[in-house]
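Section 4.2 – Deliverable D4.2 (structural model, holo form)

The reporting period included a commitment to supply a predicted holo structure for the target in complex with zinc ion. Inputs used:
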Amino acid sequence: MPLISILPHLKRAQQNRYALPLFDMADMYSVDGLLAALEEKRAPAMLAVYAGALERPNARAFVAYIRTRAETANVPVSLMLDHGSSFEQCIKAIALGFTDVMYDGSRLPLEENIANTRAVVRAAHAVGLAVEAELGHVGSGSEYQEFGAQRKGFTNPDDVERFVAETGVDILAVAIGTAHGLYAGEPHLDLELLREIRSRVDIPLALHGGSGCSDQQFRDAIVAGISKVNVATDLFVTTAQRLTAAARAEDNLHYFAFGKIAVESFQERCGHYLDVFGATGNG
Ligand SMILES: [Zn+2]
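Output (structure tokens):
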């Protein structure tokens, strides 16, 4: 089916207490593996391209590949811009055929984040896309001990209602103790803060930095109000490990074998998360 905006599916997830994943993609193998998992598990999801990849010369061709592959899949798939860094970049993604965008103004002062998010929402809503924004700042896992573990960047619940009301944003990414990339140490999630945020607004809440959280942490976060979970690092790290292991185990491994390993790895990891998030069977 054609690419869709994920919002109705996220709202259904919110009502029924499961979460839909956003998976970042890097190449055709990752697209093929992720789509195979979505079809196998009959689950909707957001497939995403990280904002920086939009600046590469193959961006238009890559988006065309994703769109063409998704059209023949029998599950609802959104193509979402992950961490759009400016209004201009979000518009570029819309012009390329993305069906949802995240604008990330989380490093900016609150007023600027509100103003920029509002502008992106206005443009995106005009053409039927949903917008995600980030309030508070989800930091880097490599700096976890100095940042997230110290509660730095955590979402201030007192800002949440105003941010959502003044921007009109559809999905809110919250900072409650996760981080992007590999964690230095163990992640600790503040579920009390999450419940507090959940009680203030009624739109789907997103958890970034899913790689490195335990299955139980995901389940607890979903019960406490998360409806969307972003996963990227684990997909790439695990797949790279499997490719390395295969190359070590056998000399002269055929090029095609690497592609097969990569696709199967993405499918397996994606399938695991769909099961843990309760998304399986909801497509
Ligand atoms: Zn993120």
